[in-house]
Amino acid sequence: MKKSIPYFYISFVIIVLAGWGYFVSGIDILSMMKHYMGVMITMIFGAFIAGSSPEGSAAIAYPVFTLYLDIAPATARNFAFAIQSFGMTAASIYILNKKVPVDWKYIGFVIIGGVLGLIVGTQYVVPLVNPPVAKLLFVSLWLSFGITLYRNNKNPHHEVRERLLHLTNRDLILLITFGFLGGVISSIFGTGINIFTFCLMVVYYHMNEKVAAASSIIIMTLETILGFFLHRQVLNDFNQDSFNMWICCIPLVIFMAPLGSYVLSKISRFQFANLLYSILFIQFMGAIWVIRPGWVLTLMSLGVILIGVILFDVLSKLKA
Fold first, then answer.
1. What is the pLDDT of residue 1?
2. Which of 66, 88, 163, 277 could cross-link to 84 by cystine, CB 3.0-4.6 Å?
3. Are 47 and 252 a contacting pair, CB within 8 Å?
C-alpha cells in the first residue's frame, strides 16, 4: 500500500520554522533556551501526550509549571494557550492530512458550547478559583473515568461505535452543555474541554477511543486558538515570561505533537486505552506529589473519585 506524504503538515512546519528563525535571529535565543530548559523538557513530553491522547499538553505542563517550576498560574495558563495554538494545530493538520478518522458531529456541537464556556469562564470563573486545589479535584475526576473505562473494556460484550449516528435534540443539548462546561475548565487550566467531552463520547456514546481522541485534539485546537486570542488581544494579560517560554518551545511542539498523533494512528484501540490508563494514573500521582494535600484535600479527592466512578458507571449503562 502506497504511503501518503503529509504535504500540508510539512508546509506548515516549513512556514513556522522560517518565521521562528527570522524572529529569533535578532535575540539571544540560546541564553533564553538555557534559562527555560525545564519548561522545554516538560513540553517535549506534554506535546507528545497532547498529540496522542485527549489530554492537552497543559494537563502535563500546568502542574509542573505552577507547583514545581514556581511559575504563576496565569502565566502557565496563558503559555498553554499560546504553545498549544502551534502544537495542537500541527497535530490537527497532521490528523486531517493523513485522514485519521474523526467525528465532525462531535466536534461541531461541542465547540459551539466550548466557545461560550471559554469566554464565560475567562471573565467570571477564573478570578474565583484556587488553581492547585481545582487541579487536584479534576485529576481525581479523570482518574475515576479511567477506572470506569478499564472496567468497561474488560467486558467482552462492550459496544464500540466508530461515529455518532442519529442525534436527537437531547443529544445536541448534551453535547453543547458538555462543551460549555469543558470550555469553563479550559479557561482555568488552558486545557480541559478535550478530556471532559472525550469522557462523554466514550462512556455514554461508546465511541471508539481512538476516534474520540483524534476528534478531541481538533476541538482543543480550536479552543486554544480562541484562548490565545482572548488573552493576547482582548485581555492583554500575556506577559513577557509567557512570551519567552512560547518562543523557546515552538520548534519542539510542532514535531512532538504530530509524533503523538502518528503513534495514535498506529496503535490498536486496546493499546491506546492502556496508554490512557497510564497517563491518567501518572497525572493523578504527579498532582498528589506536587500538591502534597492534607487530610481534608485527600478525603475530598477520594470522594470525587468514588462519586465519579459511580456517575460514569451509571452513564455508561444508559442508552445513548
1. 44
2. 88
3. yes
Across the chain, which has 320 residues, the per-10-residue mean pLDDT values are: 76 96 93 94 91 79 78 87 93 93 95 96 87 78 85 75 88 95 89 88 91 94 94 91 95 94 86 84 82 88 91 78
Main-chain phi, psi angles of 183, to 5 degrees = -65, -40
Q: What is the pLDDT of residue 25?
A: 93
Amino acid in the structure at residue 266: K
> Who contacts 283 (Cβ-Cβ below 8 Å, separation ≥6)?
55, 59, 60, 63, 139, 142, 143
CB 186 within 8 A of CB 223: yes
Contacts for 275 with CB less than 8 Å, ≥ 6 apart = 52, 53, 267
Torsion of CA 192, 196, 198, 203, to 10 degrees: 160
Cell output for 13: 512546519
Q: Provide φ and ψ at 207, rounded to 5°.
A: -75, 145
The Cα 183–Cα 29 span in angstroms is 34
Q: Are 51 and 259 in contact (CB under 8 A)?
A: yes
Task: Quickly list H helices, the chain.
Answer: 7-24, 29-35, 37-52, 57-67, 73-97, 104-120, 131-153, 169-189, 193-199, 209-229, 240-266, 269-291, 295-317
Q: What is the pLDDT of residue 315?
A: 82
Separation CA 185–CA 190 (nearest Å): 8
What's the Cα-to-Cα distance from 4 to each of 14, 80, 267, rounded to whole Å? 18, 31, 18
DSSP 23-42: HHTTS-HHHHHHHTHHHHHH
Q: Locate 261 and state its grid cell.
A: 498523533
* pTM for the model: 0.88
User: Could you tell me which of 121, 114, 151, 146 has the C-alpha nearest to residue 305?
Assistant: 146
Residues 6+ apart with CB under 8 A from 246: 79, 82, 83
Backbone φ, ψ for residue 36 (5° rounding):
-105, 30
Which cell goes with 297?
484535600
Closest Cα partner for 246 from 110, 59, 77? Answer: 77
pLDDT (0 to 100) of residue 142: 82
